[in-house]
Every structure is written in structure tokens, then in C-alpha cells.
Inverse folding.
């Protein structure tokens, strides 16, 4: 029974109305990464960063999974072997579609973290710098997301999964952010069949043996049907 590992990025949620990062009107065109997605930016202006994530938390809460998220949930429930999703996305659309075996390597918008005591809890709709931690009472709350320069979550699950994968697929990611950007090359070297399902050629395309070009809501369901018939 083949083990399937799927890395997803912002492109899988684009058709659910959530902005990507590097497309022409993407998030990084509206905000400087250094200001809103680094610990230094948060230390400099926590209000700006909390506002950035409050806006994305509201958008993500209003968004619905699309056919690509639903197809991956079907794959997990109907495929005889293990299916693991490693997502760079901080929205909850994989879980909303029914996926259970998901690693959020860059954290989640709907969780909050206390950077004084390490406590985690469900994030309120709106987070502000003056909020206090429900555990230690200190004014040290932040979104539970992984910023640039911070260690991604779930590495202890990701590394073995890449080593054991029979099939490694990447959906909707531009291949610009490490360590995720190197996963295709790594999985291929470990013997997996690699397939990239993306709207356009990405920085990591050359690492993949097979490519499916098109919007995720079209190419992912077709690929899942093939996987389930194989
Ligand atoms: C780490 C936070 C060490 C939450 C994010 C030099 C200097 C300093 C640092 C570095 C450096 N070189 C490398 C680094 C490390 C750095 C890095 O990679 N920097 C880059 C910019 C060079 N990485 C880190 O700091 C990471 N930590 O390395 O720690 C370590 C390493 C290994 C082991 C232990 C320790 C931490 C990175 C995490 C940063 N946080 N997000 C948030 O705000 O969301 S990254 C951010 O980018 C999101 O998580 C996002 O998911 C991610 C990647 O972007 P994509 O998902 O790929 O989205 P993008 O818009 O780029 O692309 C969308 C794609 O979809 C496109 O290809 C498009 O064509 C396609 N598409 C669009 N529409 C559709 C579609 N496809 C299909 N259908 C559609 N409809």
C-alpha cells in the first residue's frame, strides 16, 4: 500500500478566495515580509502584525474549502495506504474539507501562542498587543504562526514521512520558502515518485518527475481519481 505525502501552499486556497503571497496582487505585494512575518517586525510593531493576521483570520474564517481540498480529504479516507498532508498554509481549509492527517508546518491562524510561557489556545477573532495570556497573565500573546527565521513545526513527523513516501505531490506552492522548497528534491532522492500540481512553472518544478498544470480545483480531483483507481 503506497504512502502518499502531499505538500500544499497558498495556491490550493486561492480558489477559496484567500490571497497567495507571490502572485502579482499577493500578500507580499501589499506588505513587506520583514514588517509582518518576522519576529523582528513583531517586536518593532506588534499592532501592525496583529492587524495583518486579524484580517487574514477573518478572511480564512469566511472561506470554504474548494474541490482540491475536498479531493485530498477523499484521498485520505479512500486510499488504503497512509496519506499525509504537510501544509504551509495557516488556514483551516484542509480540516474543514475533512482531512485529519495534517501537519501545519507554518502554524495556524486560529491558534494563539504566549511567547512568555509557551501556552497555546484557540485564537480570538481579533488579537491585540495588550491582550494577556490566559495561563500566565503576561502581555505576551502572538499568532501561533512560524515567521521567517523561526523553526517550522512538525519536523519530527515531516522528515520520516519524506523518507518513506512512495508518492510525493506538491500543490499550489511556488517553491520559494525553505525548508519546504527542498522537499520535492529530497523525496525524489529518497525514491518517491514526485508530481507537481500547480498553475504555473515554479522555482522547484525541475525537482519533480511529473507536472500537472492548471488550477488546483481542476487538476487535483483528476489526480486523486487516478490515485484511487491505481
Ligand atoms: C527556517 C508565515 C531554519 C505564516 C511563512 C536567507 C536569509 C534568511 C533566511 C533564509 C535565507 N534563505 C533561506 C532562509 C530560510 C527562510 C526562507 O526560506 N526564506 C526565503 C524567503 C528565502 N525560511 C525560514 O526562515 C523558515 N525557517 O528555515 O528555520 C530551519 C530549517 C530547517 C529545519 C529547522 C530549522 C520559516 C519559513 C516560514 C515563513 N512563514 N508564513 C503566514 O503568514 O502565512 S511563509 C509563507 O510562504 C507562507 O507560509 C506560504 O505558505 C509560504 C510559501 O508560499 P507559497 O505557499 O508557495 O505561496 P506563493 O504565493 O509563494 O505561491 C503560490 C503558488 O500557487 C504559485 O506557484 C502559483 O502559481 C500557484 N497558484 C496560484 N493560484 C493557483 C495556484 N496553483 C493552483 N491553483 C491555483 N488556483
Amino acid at each position: 500500500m503506497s504512502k502518499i505525502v502531499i505538500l500544499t501552499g497558498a495556491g490550493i486556497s486561492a480558489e477559496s478566495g484567500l490571497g497567495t503571497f507571490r502572485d502579482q496582487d499577493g500578500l507580499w505585494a501589499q506588505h513587506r515580509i520583514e514588517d509582518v512575518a518576522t519576529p523582528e517586525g513583531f517586536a518593532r510593531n506588534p499592532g501592525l502584525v496583529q492587524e495583518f493576521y486579524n484580517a487574514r483570520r477573518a478572511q480564512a474564517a469566511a472561506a470554504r474549502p474548494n474541490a482540491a481540498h475536498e479531493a485530498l480529504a477523499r484521498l485520505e479516507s479512500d486510499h488504503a495506504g497512509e496519506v499525509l498532508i504537510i501544509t504551509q498554509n495557516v488556514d483551516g481549509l484542509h480540516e474543514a474539507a475533512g482531512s485529519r492527517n495534517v501537519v501545519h508546518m507554518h502554524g495556524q491562524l486560529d491558534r494563539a501562542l504566549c511567547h512568555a510561557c509557551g501556552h497555546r489556545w484557540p485564537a480570538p477573532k481579533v488579537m491585540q498587543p495588550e491582550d494577556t495570556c490566559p495561563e500566565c497573565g503576561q502581555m505576551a500573546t502572538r499568532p501561533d504562526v512560524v515567521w521567517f527565521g523561526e523553526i517550522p513545526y512538525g519536523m519530527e513527523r515531516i522528515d520520516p514521512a519524506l523518507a518513506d513516501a512512495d508518492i510525493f505531490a506538491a500543490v499550489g506552492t511556488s517553491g520559494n520558502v525553505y525548508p519546504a522548497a527542498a522537499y520535492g528534491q529530497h523525496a525524489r532522492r529518497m525514491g518517491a515518485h514526485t508530481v507537481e500540481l500547480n498553475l504555473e512553472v515554479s522555482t522547484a518544478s525541475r525537482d519533480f518527475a511529473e507536472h500537472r498544470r492548471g488550477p488546483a480545483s481542476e487538476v487535483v480531483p483528476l489526480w486523486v481519481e487516478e490515485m484511487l483507481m491505481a
Remarks:
- The beta strands are 4-8, 83-87, 102-104, 107-114, 120-122, 141-145, 167-171, 193-198, 210-213.
- The radius of gyration is 18 Å.
- The domain at 1-17+65-106+152-230 is CATH 3.40.50.1220 (Rossmann fold).
- The first strand starts at residue 4 and ends at 8.
